[in-house]
Write a structure and sequence with these properties.
It contains 23 helices and no strands. By secondary structure, the chain is an all-alpha fold. Helices cover about 85% and strands about 0% of the residues. The chain has a single domain, classed as MFS general substrate transporter like domains (Growth Hormone, Chain: A).
Length: about 525
């Protein structure tokens, strides 16, 4: 399969669709006019697009759970500390353990999704999260609170790992980037809702407000329960289960063009057949991940590396501990601190809309360059502004400006594109498990940042900690340039060929060089 197939497919969609609608007009006796066919084409295309968007949104609700937890804990931890009298180390453990524990759910989720399907794996995650949220709401000690926190982390790991895979597998290639940004949008919505919840309920008594804040996080998981009876299963997973007719029906609903459906189904069947013939469904999948071929190694380097850089540049430190950072800048009083964090949440959520509309137009790498360079500059400016501008109005304004700038650049690029790329670069046979490995790495890095931020800030100061983040962000710019490919507009099957073709091109250059030497 060549790399130009996708562009040729896209160029033929409109023509094929018009011919199809003209045949429909002839069958029902309608006039065979361009206006009539264009009207029906627009109507059917809009219906298909809305259906795919609804599926992507409902699958992404898991991300609201993760985002809400990140946002609400930044404020709730203030009142938890007041009531339960926990230490700084216990704060770090309470905040950071969710990310570490979620890797248990993520690793189990990859295998579970191959066994029972993508959407029912998300259902398991929602149920476990509900149980954890309920326990945290009624907790009367730090130990009970930790039990609920650990269960919530496992539930988030189950759901968040597989939602990107699911969305990528149901999406048409031409809009896959747009649709796979939905999880990041939902994370930002969740963070903003968490910040708003902090501010709205901060006036309640300290033994009630944080419980109400955490209890509201259960609501999105209830929505997931209802959504799973509406959204379809992944067509690629159905093909692996030899349920080809069901897969064809779902592809027709999500693509809408018979010619493209036939081509996509043929690609999926060939990929699935290859996976089965190589006996890669069970233990051999992990064997290929642990001992990868050169092409798979490059995929893992790109996917896992990007997941790590998304977190080690400090985004969770900014979000979880933004009240602490803003207090360093000079803002005093819980209400003022929580109100300032709402501004950070609004900025982060608004910026994701830029990525939403540009990712399939501009491409992945240009947005990643913009994002990583912008984050580096903002982090370095935070490093300079906190110690040298003092705690007056100028210092506060600059701190808020650069923090908002950092989260904005994050949401424009590496935030959403990390999930887009990792859900599309792996071949079908190892996709779920490879994505699970990347998500596990993401959560470990997030946990390490969250667990160490307060201790590191005490040791080398908040500005010193952000200098480390800025240096790591500068390295991420080089990583994007050297390792990340451009996947815009390519099918999942073509992206797999892209990594393989890079190897074949190198082999071809070597063979050509050898031939030239022999001739000379």
């Amino acid at each position: 399969m060549g790399l130009d197939n996708e562009s040729s497919d896209m160029s033929n969609i409109d023509l094929g669709s018009k011919n199809k609608y003209k045949r429909m007009d002839a069958e029902v006796g309608a006039p065979d006019s361009d206006s009539s066919s264009n009207y029906q084409e627009k109507d059917i295309t809009k219906s298909t697009r809305n259906y795919v968007m609804a599926c992507a949104f409902f699958a992404s609700v898991n991300s609201i759970l993760l985002g809400y937890d990140v946002g609400v804990m930044s404020g709730a931890i203030i009142f938890i500390q007041e009531e339960l009298k926990i230490t700084d180390v216990q704060q770090e453990v309470l905040v950071g353990c969710l990310s570490i524990v979620s890797l248990i759910g993520s690793l189990a989720g990859g295998r579970t999704s191959d066994a029972i399907g993508r959407k029912w794996t998300m259902a398991i995650g929602a149920i476990i999260f509900q149980l954890g949220g309920l326990i945290m709401t009624i907790a009367y000690s730090f130990r009970i609170l930790m039990v609920g926190r650990l269960l919530s982390g496992i539930g988030i790991g189950f759901g968040a790992t597989i939602m990107g895979v699911y969305i990528a597998e149901i999406s048409p290639a031409i809009s896959r980037g747009f649709l796979t940004t939905f999880p990041e949008i939902c994370i930002n919505i969740g963070i903003l809702l968490g910040y708003v919840s902090n501010y709205a309920f901060s006036g309640l008594p300290a033994n009630i407000n944080w419980r109400v804040m955490l209890a509201l996080g259960i609501l999105p998981s209830v929505i997931i329960g209802f959504a799973l009876f509406i959204i379809p299963e992944s067509p690629r997973w159905l093909v692996l289960q030899n349920r080809t007719d069901e897969a064809r029906t779902i592809l027709m609903n999500t693509i809408g063009d018979e010619k493209e459906v036939a081509e996509r189904l043929d690609d999926i069947l060939q990929t699935a057949s290859k996976a089965k013939s190589m006996n890669l469904e069970e233990k051999a999948v992990w064997r290929e991940i642990v001992r990868p071929s050169p092409a798979v190694y490059k995929m893992l380097a790109a996917g896992v590396g990007l997941q790590c850089f998304q977190q080690i540049t400090g985004i969770d430190a900014l979000v979880y501990y933004s009240p602490t950072i803003l207090k360093t800048a000079g803002i005093e009083g819980n209400s003022q601190l929580l109100a300032a964090t709402v501004a950070v949440g609004v900025t982060k959520t608004a910026a994701i809309l830029v990525a939403l509309f540009l990712i399939d137009r501009v491409g992945r790498k240009p947005l990643l360059y913009t994002s990583t360079i912008g984050i580096t500059v903002c982090l370095f400016c935070i490093t300079l502004s906190l110690p040298f501008m003092g705690k007056g109005p100028v210092g506060i304004a600059l701190a808020i400006l650069f923090i908002c700038g950092d989260v904005a650049f994050f949401s424009v690029g590496i935030g959403p594109i990390c999930w887009v790329l990792t859900s599309e670069i792996y071949p079908l046979r190892i996709r779920a498990q490879a994505v699970a490995v990347g998500f596990a790495a993401n959560r470990v890095c997030s946990g390490l940042v969250s667990l160490s931020f307060l201790s590191l800030s005490s040791a080398i100061s908040v500005p010193g900690t952000f200098f480390i983040f800025s240096a790591l962000s500068a390295i991420s710019v080089v990583f994007v340039h050297k390792v990340i490919p451009e996947t815009k507009g390519k099918t999942l099957e073509e992206i797999e060929c892209l990594f393989n073709e890079n190897d074949r091109l190198k082999e071809g250059h070597v063979e050509l060089a050898d031939t030239v030497r022999l001739v000379s």
